[in-house]
Amino acid sequence: MANVNWPEAVKPLIKKYKGKKHPLEYGNTYQLLVMVVLSAQDSDKHINQIAPKFFAAFPNMQALSQATPEAIAEQINDVRNFGNKSKWLSELSRKIKQDKNIPLTLDELTEMPGIGRKSANVIKRESGAEAEGIIVDLHVVRVAPRLSIASGTDPKKIEKQMMEILPQKLWDAGMAMSFLGREICRPTNPKCEVCVMNTVCAYYNNNKN
């Protein structure tokens, strides 16, 4: 599948998922930020289940900033890596103090404990801030090399490759690939026949009978 015009090729994919909200069920930017931190190495579904109780205890950044790491940990003790996550949430809430102070630039977000590039890109996308990068989660790490728009398994390298190939206005391709990976381009038995990308997909074209 050499010589694919990727800026053109990804447009049907972006169109398919345009405006689709992230699977985390958040109500505002504060909730989004907390849930993004909690969801690392855990499932969005699980975080959605524990979120209502957590936000009843800590309804905003100010309330969270006044809680001890131990009090936070009590609310998230069945979340993976909850010990570190409770410390990160305590620390970042004390830095931010109030919901209105939540930063929306990549540099400021990634300076916060518990927030890497992927998390920052998710927060920016869902907040409607201009993209400074491309979301590369575990689904994109699978989908992008299958398509052959990128190679390898390192999220940062995959993001860099895609940022070089696609203009900024198409950087929502990352989240679109994530949705595609959840729904169609599954780890086993991907539904290639119904995929909008199958005409340009190296995986599909190499495995066709």
TrEMBL record:
Record keyword ATP-binding present: no
Domain HhH-GPD: 38-183
Keywords: 4Fe-4S, DNA damage, DNA repair, Endonuclease, Glycosidase, Hydrolase, Iron, Iron-sulfur, Metal-binding, Nuclease
Family listed: Belongs to the Nth/MutY family.
Cofactor(s) annotated in UniProt: [4Fe-4S] cluster
Single GO MF annotation: metal ion binding
GO BP term, pick one: base-excision repair, AP site formation
Species whose genome carries this gene: Panacibacter microcysteis
InterPro entries: DNA_glycosylase, Endonuclease3_FeS-loop_motif, Endouclease-III_FeS-bd_BS, HhH-GPD_domain, HhH_base_excis_C
Protein name (Swiss-Prot/TrEMBL): Endonuclease III
